Amino acid sequence: MVTDKTKCVVLARVSSRAQEEEGYSLDAQEKLARDYCPKKDLEIKELFRITETASKSKERQVFGEMMKYITLNRITVLVVEKVDRLTRSFRDMVMIDDWLEGDDMREVHLIKDGLVMNKRSRSQDKLNWGVKVLFAKNYTDNLREEVYKGRQEKLAQGWLPGRPPYGYITTGEKGKKVHVPDETKARMVVRLFEGYLYPGRSLSSVTAYAAEIGIRTSTGRPMSRSAIVDNVLKNPFYVGINRWEGVDYPGNQRAIVSEELFKNVQVKMRRKSAPKYQRHNPDLRSVVRCSDCQGTIVWEQKKGTWYGHCNRYKGCPKKEYAKQEDVEKQLFVHFAELLCPSPEIAEWIVRSLRAKHQEDMQDYAASKELLQQQHDRKKRQLDLLYEDRLSERITPERYDELSNKIMQEQKELESNISKAHETGRQQLLTGAEVLEKSQKAALVYAAKSPEEKRRLLGELFTSMSLDGPMLTVVYNPYSLAISKRVKKHRKVVENFRTNKNTPDNGGEFELTEALHTVWRARPDSNRRSSP
Q: How far apart are CA 128 and CA 112, in angstroms?
């Protein structure tokens, strides 16, 4: 029986935002309990709250902490709004029943249900208690079923029922939210996939690379290796597939990674990794593959000389060994194919690219300022539109139509300016860096460490393969463009020397102008400029 100043604990729970809007807020439950307790001569010792955003495990944790507090502090009364605020599971019901059975003084007050449960409660009250718990559990089971059906319907429509991975943002109205690419972050995702395919790059090094190019979590921290691997590199969402609970569904989101690039990344990740313990660190470790089986060429040292050979992956018949120095001689041939015959022209084109980059930065800043101005205008339009809605000068339907249109225009403006400027700026900057490195490759290669050599090769070539002792390389897009310019450069010089029997200063100037055109891939806009 309750005595004067009996101490009690209050539990307030709301498990969904809808319940919050329907009047079951935590504050409302607390107020109800504070009004009720003095009438029953109860003193509130502690208040436990389970918010609408709590996860299932968090709810269990708070409930467990409450029961532990009640036991340690010998609290004999628990006050809640009604049964479904206390428990919606038979497991919690059994825990409460066991607690009540442990002491004659213990009680559970269910305010709105008009029940006070204790060890000596009538069988009818216990039946009401059990029925209410049963209905509460049915409510949660039905809610879970509706959530499941809603998720399945969204998947059937081609959309992921959850937060999208890095590189996408969520847009749209409640119940109609979809995922669209965040153009800036999407380009970083593509760079990450491409960067992982660099020869010699591992999952650990690509994680560091992700941090270098600015890929971060929502809190601004660098992503961990597991997040990079599981949430990005292995995620088929980037190629238009929604994976949910281990099942793949066709998606309607715009793919930002090509299927070929995604497939190549998966193939590389499935390959057997190199041994954890390595006694030696050869220069070309993990960067050269067999031309037949695509297995990694392994390197062995014999009498101070490194030899590379295929490990006969999948029964590959290749057995001939290749000397590292012979392979590197062939590398220097490819370095020569990237070397501009005129150092002055090479310096000029790098300066031009850098200058163009600065111009584009200024253009980008101007476009960004223009975008902000347009956004401000759109925001003012939305504010005025909202005032019209409050004043009932327009109907709710008309307000929804106009506001959605304005918000869509904002997103389109932002996307278009990002596409028009950011991609070109990044490509220009990368092209200048590759050009500079290609001109110095032959000079600095020998002095670099094995790791630096592998990094340099990865920046110039997409792949390298051996057919016995014969080396084949595949240039990346930037290196390929440079090699083509070098060939055109030599051809222009050869033709000029053949056709100009008496080259003078004017002739040399014409040659320079012609070479500028070759490297710029378009006529020089300033015909009288010099390198």
A: 13
The distance from CA 423 to its chain's CA centroid, rounded to whole angstroms, is 18
Helix (H) / strand (E) element for 444: namely helix 396-444
- In this structure, the strands spanning 298-302 and 178-181 are unpaired
Residue identified by tokens 């079923």 is 145
Q: How far apart are the first and last CA of the chain?
A: 99
Give pLDDT tens digits along the chain (531 positions): 445 678 999 998 876 554 544 445 788 888 999 999 999 989 999 999 877 554 566 667 888 888 899 989 999 999 998 887 777 666 777 778 888 888 889 999 988 888 888 888 888 877 877 777 777 667 666 766 776 777 777 877 788 888 899 999 988 776 678 888 988 888 899 999 988 887 778 888 889 989 888 898 888 889 999 999 999 999 999 998 888 888 888 888 888 888 888 998 998 888 755 444 445 678 888 889 888 888 888 888 888 889 998 876 667 876 689 999 999 999 999 999 999 888 888 888 877 777 766 666 666 666 667 767 776 787 788 778 777 777 778 888 887 788 788 777 766 765 655 554 444 444 444 667 788 888 888 888 888 888 888 888 988 898 999 988 999 999 988 888 899 999 999 888 888 777 654 445 456 778 888 888 888 754 333 333 333
Residue 86's closest CA among 76, 77, 96? 96
C-beta separation of 431 from 349 below 8 A: no
pTM (2 d.p.): 0.44
